[in-house]
Specification:
By secondary structure, the chain is mostly beta strands. Strands 2, 4, 5, 6, 9, 10 and 11 form a seven-stranded mixed beta sheet that branches. Strands 1-3-8-7 form a four-stranded antiparallel beta sheet, with no helix packed on it. The protein is 0% helix and 48% strand. It contains no helices and eleven strands.
């Protein structure tokens, strides 16, 4: 049974940092792609980043201004999203997702690329 569990969200002041975790189980991590997305209620889900586990190929949405970094610890089966210099507009529910295939480029930033999703973790950026 595939499981993705996000954690690490919370309340942070503008300019602060958070590191989100996505703990995974129930599938072969090595041949998968992990993606991070976020969604503000009432708006469309927005892609943040993806990582092809086998090739360690990372891809980011253009709008992030290099503030976000994706990483994976294969031994712990955990993906991370390091978020720096957070802004109020980063407030959203953050989701990790998994596809049982390798993914590169903008295709891996599409919601349709992913089959499995976590439950999400709330990030609130406010003073």
């Amino acid at each position: 049974q595939v499981q993705l569990v996000e954690s690490g969200g919370g309340l942070v002041q503008p300019g602060g940092s958070l590191r989100l975790s996505c703990t995974t189980s129930g599938f072969t991590l090595q041949t998968s792609t992990i993606g991070w997305f976020r969604q503000v209620p009432g708006k469309e889900r927005e892609a943040i980043s993806s990582i092809d586990i086998y090739y360690d190929y990372k891809f980011y949405a253009d709008s992030l201004e290099d503030r976000f970094t994706i990483a994976v610890n294969k031994r712990e089966r955990t993906a991370y999203l390091q978020m720096n210099n957070l802004k109020p507009e980063d407030t959203a529910i953050y989701y990790c997702a998994m596809a049982m295939r390798q993914g590169r480029g903008r295709a891996a930033l599409s919601e349709d690329f992913y089959t499995y999703w976590g439950q999400g973790t709330q990030v609130t950026v406010s003073s």
